[in-house]
Amino acid sequence: MSARQISQTVNGLVIIFAVTLAHGAQPSCVPVHGMSLQDLQSFDFQARGEKYKAQTAWPDARPEYVLGQINFVRQNVFPDRNHWLARQANRFNTLTSESALLAAFPFVPGNLIDERRRDEAERVLRDKAFLYDARVLVRQVCGTRMDLDVVVRDVWTLTPGLGLTRSGGDNETSVSLSDVNFLGTGKGLSIEYFDDTDRSGTFLSYDDPNILGSRWQGSLVAADNDDGERYGASLSRPFFALDTPYAFGFSANHFVRNEDLEFLGRDQFELQAETDTVNIYLGRSSGRQQGWVNRYFAGVRYQHEQFEYPLDFPDTTQDERKFIYPYLGWSLIEEQFEASTDIDRVGIVEDINLGWNIYLELGWSPDTFGGFGDYLLLRGAASHRQYLARAHLLSLSAELRSRYDLDNNTTEDLRLESRASYLWRQSEKWSFFASLDYNLTRNLPADKQLTLGGDDGLRGYPTRYQIGDRSVLATLEQRYYSSAYPFGLFRVGYAAFFDVGRAWFEDEPPAWVPPREGDHFDVLSNVGVGLRLESVRTRRDRLVHIDFAKPLVDGPFVSSWEFTITAKQSF
Q: What fold characterizes domain 30-154?
C-alpha cells in the first residue's frame, strides 16, 4: 500500500470517527409543556393558575435558542359542539390554513428565539382579526434548539351583514358580505352597500397580508358613491417584527367626494372635493437595542387637492393645493408590552405597551418640484402608558400635523389632538375611567373643521353639534365587567357615564359660520348608561356599544334622550 493510500485510509477513518462522535453527541430532547395534541386541541385560553403558568413558562436553561420546528394547532370557532349553533358554525367555517399562520408568524426556523420574541409572536397573531387568541408554547428543547407549538382559535369571519348604526342623532345603514379570512387564507374580501352621514354607495376591497406566503402585503379598494368615487392600491413590506431590519411601502389613492360643512349638526354648505395622493418610502432599523427600537424612514409624497365651492360660499381663497416633497421620518418604540384583560376590551387578552411610542416626520415641498409654494410639512405623534400603582393606569397621547408657508412666514392647517386617560381597577369586576381630550387648530383651510358632538364623545348630542378652533371634552365612567356569557357568544360589560365639553373659536371664525348665541354654544354635558358586547366568536376588532344618554343642556335639534349603537375598538 502506497503512502497516498495509507493517508486516504487514515483520513477516511478520522472522518467516520468524527461523524460517529457527532451523532452520538446529539443532545436528547427534553419535553417542556407536557401536553398532548388532544390536550392542545382543548387548550383553555382563559385558564390561569399554577398549572397554566407551568405550561406556558420559558425554560430556565438558556435565555436564547435556535428556532426549530413550528407545529400549529388550530381550534375551531366553538371548542364544543353541544348545541346546534356551535355545530353549524364549526361545520361551515374553514379553519385558517397552516400556510397562512406560518406566513403571519414573525419568525422562521433558524432564527434566534427568546422569551421576548415568543411573546411578540403571540402579539402578532392576536392582532389578526380572524383569530380569537394565540399561545406559543415550548414543546421541547434539544440542546440549543427549541421546537414550538402554536395554539390558535379561529373566529367566524364570513359576515353577511345588515347593519344599523345610530350616533349623534344620525342613522347609518349597510348591507354587506365580507370575510377577513377568505377560505382560511388570511386574506380579506368585502363588498358593501352603505348609507351614512356623509354619503352612500358601494364599496369593494381586497386585502392580502402575505402575498404568496411572503412578508409582502397588498390591498385594493374601489367605491362608487352618490357623490363621487374612490380607488386605491398599496404594496408594502412592513416592519413585521421589532427586529425587522428594513421596510418598503407604496400607496396611491384617488377620492372624489362632497365635503359637508356643518353647524348644530345640520349641513350649511357642500363642497365638491377631489384628492389624489401617492406615497413611497423606505425604512431601516437596527432592531432591539436594550429594550428600544429605532426606525428611520425616507420617502416621497405627492398630494393634490381640488375644490369647487357653491356660488354663495363666502370664502374661495384656496380652491387647489398641491404638495410634492421628500420627507424623513423617525420612530421610537419602547418594548414594555404586557398582556392584560379588561382594560380597553371585555374578557379578552389585550396587548398594551407600558412605554413610549413616538413618530416624527419632516418634509420639504418647494415650488420647483411642482408644488404650489414653498412649504415645510410636519407630522408627529407620541403615546405613553404607565402604572402609577399596580391598579392605576395612566395613558397619554398627542398627535400634531401642520405645514409652514416659507413664502409668507405663516403656519397653516395646524391640528393638535391630545388625550390623557386614567383607569383605576377597583376590583376584578369594577373599574373607574376618566379621560380629558383637548384639540387645537389654527388657520384651517375652508374645507376642514373641528367639531364636537355625538360622534366625538359627547354622547347626548347630535353629530358635529358644536364647531370651533378649540375643543375640550371630559368623560367620567364607572365600568362593570360581568361574568355573563350569553350562548357562549358574548362577553358583557356595563357603563354609567358623564360627558362634559365644549368647542369654541378663540380666533376669528370662518366667514361662513352663522352667529353663535345661546346656552348651546357654552359648555354642554350629558349623563347616560351603556351596554358593551364583546363577541368572542366573530372578528375580534369590534366592540359593540349600546348607549342611552340624556343631555343636561338643551338646544336646537337636541332630543330628550339620545340612543346610539356603534362598533368601536375600545370600551
A: Ubiquitin-like (UB roll) (3.10.20)
